[in-house]
Amino acid sequence: GDGLGFELGRAEFRTKLVGGLPSKRSAEVIVDGVVNPAWSFINQELSGRHSVTVARGPPTDIVDEWGDFKKRFESQNFDDSQWQDLLHAPHPEFTFVPIADLVPPPHRAAYAALVG
Fold first, then answer.
1. Pick from 19, 61, 64, 60: which is nearest to 42 by CA?
2. Cα R_g (the chain), whole angstroms
3. Model confidence over 36-52: pLDDT tens digits?
4. For the chain, where are the E strands, in sequence order?
5. Nearest alpha carbon to residue 18 among 95, 90, 96
6. Kind and range of the H or E element at 80?
7. Distance (Å, rounded) from C-alpha 73 to C-alpha 68?
8. Phi, psi of 36 (to 5 degrees)
9. Long-range contacts, 65-72 (Cβ 8 Å, 24+)
10. How many whole angstroms separate alpha carbon 28 and alpha carbon 73?
11. What is the pLDDT of residue 113?
12. How far apart are CA 38 and CA 52, in angstroms?
């Protein structure tokens, strides 16, 4: 979407628990008083101090001045039924991994030497 150029004060988010779990919530967005059903949000608590929110929105809402981001998509055009299926597809759970697991294998020995 508009990213940092969007006036966030125009948006309201209504949340509800997912599966009765207090650590996971879904949300819908209301912009200028109108629900936008093309977007969905899922918020998951990662720990007592951290959480993550994943937003799903239509490719048509992406502002991509040079087209570098959109060209990586397999598909950019969906009919309403396809989009609703994608929008409401299951969200995988987040898992914690050690930072070392994110280091490319060829560089792990150097990383281990730096951090001990």
1. 19
2. 18
3. 999 999 998 887 788 88
4. 11-18, 21-31, 34-45, 51-56
5. 90
6. helix 80-87
7. 10
8. -105, 100
9. none
10. 24
11. 95
12. 20
